[in-house]
């Protein structure tokens, strides 16, 4: 499967675009950008300088300017965004020019936000270089930066002109980063596509490698789950909320750990937390709650974390984007692929789920 032709997954809606999954896709960049732009700002982490030069070569028909930004979450600040805006101003970028975001999820979040806000919106193409970015950040049009109060609290919805998921770029990805990306993949299995869970549970995890057929299928299935949800709810006013499964606690963990816990790892832990919350609320059966822990652990993800007190995490969850007023909202499951919202659960239920998450409970 890994040697076959690229797969094209179409995202419909008001601003349709394609997500292409395959290998060696950089040469497709001009086809996605089109003949409108004269200048292209290539936003990339400083650690991906060599790859950025390869991408610039693939875009030789344009006037390409490299905009290196810090690696990882350090790129997602107002200061870095402002530096990018100043650069676009100096270069004379017009509304017909374009941004290409080449990097992990932090880079596509930042690059998309810069594109969304420059002249109130210019064309952006995402080339995600991590598994997490391919199945999550690069698809769906959500962009953003972080503040001291929390992650992704400042942002905009700005759909890309296209997304190129070149799985060959995962060949050099550290194993820990690949495993972290599987957190979002397994999550998609629980909320919408049980075949993902069957693949994970029926495959030797050591064989889930960037050049494997199974990883290619997992990537395509996870992206399709996201497409199916976002095409009907770009701005998270309805069904899209299900994609936040496990994220309320995950974002609290990331903030409490000063982002030392990777996003996919935090999603795994947060999903176990919310599965236990659903179990103690009488919404989810014991076997499905336990299946969460088993599935995430099978691919090498953590399912317990005790790096912060309940009070600290509870306070962080209160400022999460998914809270409404003083009401905490959690996406929970009634069964595999049957999500619903649990609003304002009692404190004793939250504490019980926290106890299981930290290893102090009976789960």
UniProtKB/TrEMBL annotation:
Record-listed NAD(+) binding positions: 71-76, 105-109, 129-130, 142, 151
Question: What's one Pfam family here?
Answer: DHQ_synthase
User: What's the superkingdom here?
Assistant: Bacteria
Look up the EC number in the record and give it.
4.2.3.4
Cofactor binding, note field: Binds 1 divalent metal cation per subunit. Can use either Co(2+) or Zn(2+).
Q: What does this protein do?
A: Catalyzes the conversion of 3-deoxy-D-arabino-heptulosonate 7-phosphate (DAHP) to dehydroquinate (DHQ).
Put simply, this protein is called 3-dehydroquinate synthase
Instruction: Please spell out the taxonomic lineage of the organism that makes this protein.
Output: Bacteria, Bacillati, Actinomycetota, Actinomycetes, Propionibacteriales
Gene name on record? aroB
């Amino acid at each position: 499967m890994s040697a076959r032709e690229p797969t094209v997954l179409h995202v419909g809606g008001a601003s349709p675009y394609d997500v292409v999954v395959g290998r060696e896709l950089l040469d497709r960049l001009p086809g996605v950008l089109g003949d409108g732009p004269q200048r292209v700002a290539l936003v990339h982490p400083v650690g991906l300088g060599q790859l950025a030069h390869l991408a610039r070569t693939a875009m030789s028909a344009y006037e390409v300017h490299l905009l290196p930004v810090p690696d990882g979450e350090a790129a997602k600040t107002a200061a870095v965004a402002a530096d990018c805006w100043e650069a676009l101003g100096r270069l004379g970028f017009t509304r017909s020019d374009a941004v290409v975001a080449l990097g992990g999820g932090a880079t596509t979040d930042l690059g998309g936000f810069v594109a969304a806000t420059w002249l109130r919106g210019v064309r952006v193409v995402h080339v995600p270089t991590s598994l997490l970015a391919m199945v999550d950040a690069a698809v769906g049009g959500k962009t953003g930066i972080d503040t001291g109060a929390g992650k992704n609290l400042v942002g905009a919805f700005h759909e890309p002109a296209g997304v190129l998921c070149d799985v060959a770029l995962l060949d050099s990805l550290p194993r820990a980063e690949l495993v972290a990306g599987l957190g979002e993949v397994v999550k998609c299995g629980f909320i919408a596509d049980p075949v993902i869970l069957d693949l994970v549970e029926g495959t030797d995890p050591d064989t889930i490698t960037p050049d494997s057929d199974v990883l290619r299928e997992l990537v395509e299935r996870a992206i399709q789950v996201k497409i199916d949800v976002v095409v009907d709810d770009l701005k998270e006013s309805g069904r899209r909320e299900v994609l936040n499964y496990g994220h309320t606690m995950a974002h609290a963990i990331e903030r409490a750990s000063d982002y030392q816990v990777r996003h996919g790892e935090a999603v795994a832990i947060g999903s176990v937390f919310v599965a236990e919350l659903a179990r103690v609320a009488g919404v989810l059966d014991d076997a499905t709650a336990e299946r969460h822990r088993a599935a995430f652990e099978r691919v090498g993800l953590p399912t317990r974390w005790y790096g912060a007190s309940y009070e600290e995490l509870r306070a962080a969850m209160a400022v999460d984007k998914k809270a409404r007023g003083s009401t905490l909202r959690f996406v929970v499951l009634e069964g595999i692929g049957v999500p619903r919202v649990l609003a304002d659960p009692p404190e004793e239920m939250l504490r019980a789920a926290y106890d299981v998450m930290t290893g102090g409970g009976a789960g």
